[in-house]
Amino acid sequence: MERLFKLKENKTDVRTEIIAGITTFMTMAYIIFVNPDILSSTGMDKGAVMTATIVAAGLTTILMGLLTNYPFALASGMGLNAFFAFVVASEYGWQAALGAVCISGIVFTILAVTRAIEYIDAAVPTTLKRAVAAGIGLFIAYIGLQNGGIIVSDPATQVTLGNLTEPGPMLTLIGVLIIVVLMARGVRGSILIGILLTTIVGFIMGIKELPTGLGDIFGMPASLAPIALKLDLKAALSIPFFVIFSFLFVDVFDTMGTLLGTGARAGFLDEKGRLPLVNRAMLADAIGTIGGALLGTSTVTTYVESTAGVSEGGRTGLTSIVTGLLFFLALFIAPLAGLIPTEATAPALVIVGVLMVGGVMKINFDDFTEALPAFLTILFMPLAYSIADGIAFGFIAYPVVKLVSGRYKEVHWLVYLLAAVALIHFFWA
Length: 429
Description:
two-stranded antiparallel ribbon
């Protein structure tokens, strides 16, 4: 184990790594319940999605540990799963959506192997990267409010406040309050604990029936047969470029940001602020995306919750191995997913949205040429109900406003190219 993970060299030990792995798992295990709830809205089998979510997370996290010896964990990404379900699958079908995810993973793999990611990362404005993260935060929070019945459709105003006295919205508000209290007090695994406590409140309110025995909680995992290898690559190729690009863009830059942020926290960055073996880490993420699509789940990405394990002293791939193994153990609580109401997972979307929108604070709103593209990116994601459209508006606005202000040299040629593609996406696709 010492030879494989270099524990002494990284100033850690087995006990510390195990505790760190457990901590990381606790902070991100909510995805086990949230992802199936979101993806099942497309018609995908909920039990099968839960199995796919767990297997993809377990395998990819272990792969990350073995390939890089870093304490990073991966699972189906929040925001991208909502984009997958409510935008892409709703229009093109979940089989085509899985195909789009797979294609984005293949392109990601090529970029990682050829090291082209570093070139693209330097070309794309930091403002747009931060705006995309903030926009996705608003988008999934909005979906969470809809799922919980707090925001509903209205023929006159498009959307309006729901009836908060009804059981569903009331349970959602209770769930948000529970998670807020837990997070404010610094409790590890606040979102997961909040989902479970909200489910218990749901039993008391009669929204869900109480389990009658251990068989309602523990059992064998659901079969992958309804969704595994059901992706439709041919149909995916007919999906507009910017939709697939959105899967790729968010995965690449979300992963890059998470790796650098968590790497900095762990002290992995070199004197130039670079993460050694970053391309291996990106490759593990890309392989996870392809594997996840084959299993039947949305884009797999590196989780910022890995920072929780790093904070507990995790410094090697052993942390990731522990986290991955715990995901596999979670396969045997599959029946529990059926007991958790949508109103108990909706608060998780709202809270994750809060955590993601924080990137907006680092955008320079005093510079109009930076502020306008960021604002349009953030605004159009929830209003157009599409991450792709938000990204497209941002990539059009950025070079245009720089051009008319005489600052066209600040824009990389690749951004001009993507702006042209975005225009095609809107007017000729």
